[in-house]
Design brief:
- The complex is a heterodimer.
- By secondary structure, chain A is α/β, with parallel strands linked by helices.
- Chain A contains 15 helices and 14 strands.
- Chain A folds into 2 domains: 148 residues, Rossmann fold (3-Layer(aba) Sandwich), CATH 3.40.50.1100; 213 residues, Rossmann fold (3-Layer(aba) Sandwich).
- Chain A has a 6-stranded mixed sheet, sandwiched between helices.
- By secondary structure, chain B is of the alpha/beta class.
- The longest helix of chain B is centred in the last third of the chain and has 16 residues.
- The chains are: A alpha/beta, B alpha/beta.
- Chains A and B meet through helix 1, helix 8 and strand 11 of A and helix 3 and helix 5 of B.
């Protein structure tokens, strides 16, 4: 079993080749990309220690993204389920509607610092695409968003946002026409344009530096949560932190500050989509998009197609950092089906005033399963990491309505 | 046999021309057809590269992606590729063949098993697009131990310091990527600039055989003939796509193209 190092940030627990626990991550990329990613690594290591840059980031988070996102108890749901206390960290309240806002903003800031004028990113559900497009507009960068044609049609509201913000949407029609193909195409674009383009990988995936930047950015969520918990409980109570896992960027942000806690004190639970679930179905390790990770493949090693109603979860791989958390036993992973996610949305929206997108609906489903089995003193916190409006059409198709 | 890659360069040098290297995807558009194509063009080739198709290629342009897609649709598997190499080598034992692919295919198969299979079927060299220096050190050693040439790549973004290290750990052939691009896009740099980059590499170690690839077509090939070798890939894959689309025989069309390419460099 892999042992995590205490007091060292999760993203920094890699060796000089970029491997976590000797087997996850690495830098499996074309020679052309080596120098640009090395330059980016140097720049990032400098910036994360640079007070002026951190101040700038904090200001952007505060004034541009709207500052701290709310943390509150869901009284009705708690009473209805009759077990653990259920709390919501409502990251979807951020300007930008999802945790991707942090990651996109930081990438645009880094792009600016690097002196590059072009920024390119991939998107599945469109949340990263939308936020990157907005950040690029704000910072005067030319932006291209790569998106599978299947996702372009099922996440139309976000596509409109992206275009309205002035970014170019590059449709990707190869393979399954979803996120996995968008990431491949975006990486190819970078290979061809790395001299003037900054690559903003949409989640905690890719060569070492890309997943570091991503998880570093989203960790804002757990910094806030830690303070909010202390304010509310006077200490860090016995907790279960439930988060949906597509590739895993929101979970990494939600958990980052709690990694060093004993798992009996703060338990970390990741919820994948049932048919895109490499972490919870014992998938093998494979190399995808520059990194070794738990990933669904066929026998020959070709990357498998996945199926999820949720575009953000429809991806065969998982962040190398989740491989590390799984193999070290620090986090545990489970999954929920489309049906279970829809049922969770139905119940949550009936009882509470939040409207999760399909992605966090998977996390809510696990919360609903777990809560009745627990005691009143147990605290469940769910990261409500995305707003539901983008899935309005799908909810109406599936449930017959979308709540007000 | 053992040094057939070196021999191929020697022969070309004797004839005062660059070695001509083709890239096609094994299994494109069917297993038999891809072997037929390779057999047919091999008379004009010095070295043959055969691609191992993968469905998430991060450095291939559209043409090679199309070829890989066709090959995968027709059910090509790694074991088929080894069988086809063996068949090819049976009739052309002195024609060097290099397999080129992504690390996932090797990783999934198992490094050691993969190399043993390569050796048993007669593979002379390997190019692994996404296993770059220094991460490829152990794998390169394993290749060398089994008399397989591990071909290192050098890109326009590679610094001179890194170039020296790569060349030091390289075997008999080095692959220089002409421009910052995926395979098959137009040359972004002038011929002069490409030759300049090439000379930087040659100057570090003149005895290494350096080939130039990416974006080489009928139009550009003659301008680069001072190189030790030239790789044409996407242009050939494009010709296969065109032939299939026009319901023509890809074997004759590709053979004609390769003959033309050869004529431009002699």
């Amino acid at each position: 079993m892999i042992k995590l190092k205490k007091k060292i940030p999760l993203i920094d627990q890699h060796d000089k080749f970029g491997f976590y626990g000797n087997k996850f991550g690495g830098n499996y990329c074309a020679e052309t990309m080596r120098k640009p990613i090395e330059d980016l690594s140097k720049l990032f290591e400098k910036l994360r220690k640079d007070r002026k840059f951190l101040k700038k980031r904090d200001n952007y988070f505060k004034y541009y993204l709207g500052g701290e996102t709310p943390f509150f108890k869901l009284e009705n749901l708690t009473n209805h389920l009759g077990g653990a206390q259920i709390w919501c960290k409502d990251v979807s309240a951020i300007n930008g509607d999802a945790h991707k806002a942090y990651h996109a903003t930081v990438n645009a800031l880094i792009c600016k610092e690097s002196g590059k004028r072009y920024i390119a990113g991939d998107t599945g559900a469109g949340m990263f695409g939308k936020n990157l497009a907005m950040a690029a507009k704000k910072m005067n960068l030319k932006c291209k968003i790569f998106m599978g044609t299947k996702d372009i049609s099922r996440q139309a509201p976000n596509v409109k946002f992206i275009r309205d913000a002035g970014a170019e949407v590059v449709p990707v029609d190869s393979g399954s026409k979803t996120l996995v193909d968008a990431v491949s195409e975006c990486m190819r674009h970078y290979v061809s344009n790395c001299d003037n383009t900054h690559l903003a990988v949409g989640s905690a995936i890719g060569c070492n530096i890309f997943l570091k930047i991503c998880a570093w950015s989203t960790s804002q969520i757990s910094r806030e949560l830690k303070m909010q918990l202390i304010k509310e409980f006077g200490e860090i109570p016995k907790l279960k932190l439930i988060n949906v896992i597509g590739v895993g960027s929101s979970a990494l942000g939600f958990w980052n500050e709690f990694i060093d806690y004993d798992k009996r004190h703060v338990e970390l639970i990741g919820v994948e989509a049932k048919y895109a679930a490499p972490l919870s179905t014992n998938a093998k390790i494979a190399i995808l998009h520059g990194a070794a990770q738990y990933c669904l493949t066929d026998k020959e090693g070709q990357i498998a197609e996945t199926h999820s109603l949720s575009a953000g979860l429809d991806y065969p791989g998982s962040s190398p950092l989740h491989g590390l958390l799984k193999d070290s036993g620090r986090a545990r992973y489970t999954n929920a089906s489309d049906k279970e996610a829809l049922a969770a949305f139905k119940l949550i929206t009936k009882l509470e005033n939040i409207r999760p997108s399909l992605e966090p609906a998977h996390a809510w489903s696990e919360c609903i399963r777990l809560a009745p089995k627990l005691k009143k003193s147990d605290v469940l916190v769910v990261n409500n990491c995305g707003k539901g409006y983008k899935d309005k059409k799908i909810y109406i198709e599936q449930l017959g309505y979308y709540p007000k | 046999m053992k040094n057939s890659i070196n021999n191929a360069f020697k022969i070309a040098k004797k004839e005062n021309r660059p070695a001509l290297i083709s890239y096609t995807v094994c299994g494109d558009n069917t297993k038999d057809k891809s072997l037929e194509i390779l057999n047919s063009i091999s008379k004009d080739l010095d070295i043959a590269e055969w691609g191992i198709p993968h469905n998430c290629p991060t450095a291939d342009g559209k043409d090679i992606q199309n070829s890989s897609y066709r090959a995968l649709q027709n059910g090509i598997r790694l074991n088929d590729i080894f069988k086809l190499v063996k068949k090819f080598k049976k009739t052309k034992p002195f024609k060097p063949i290099i397999l080129m692919g992504y690390y996932q295919m090797i990783f999934n198969f198992g490094e050691k098993k993969f190399i043993q299979k390569c050796k048993a079927s007669g593979v002379d060299g390997l190019i692994v697009v996404d296993l770059s220096f220094p991460d490829n050190k152990n794998f390169a050693k394993l290749c060398k131990k089994n008399s397989i040439c591990f071909v290192q790549l050098i890109a326009p973004t590679t610094t001179v310091k890194r170039m020296r290290e790569i060349i030091k750990s390289s075997h008999e052939m080095i692959y220089m990527i002409s421009t910052i691009s995926t395979t098959g896009s137009a040359l972004k740099y002038s011929i002069k600039r490409i030759i300049k980059n090439y000379n930087v590499i040659k100057k570090i170690k003149p005895s290494k055989n350096v080939v130039i690839g990416f974006g080489i077509t009928e139009k550009t090939i003659s301008n680069l003939k001072s190189a030790d070798g030239l790789v044409v890939g996407s242009a050939i894959c494009r010709e296969i796509t065109r032939s299939l689309k026009d319901r023509q025989n890809p074997v004759t069309n590709v053979s004609k193209l390769v003959r033309k390419l050869k004529n431009k460099i002699i």
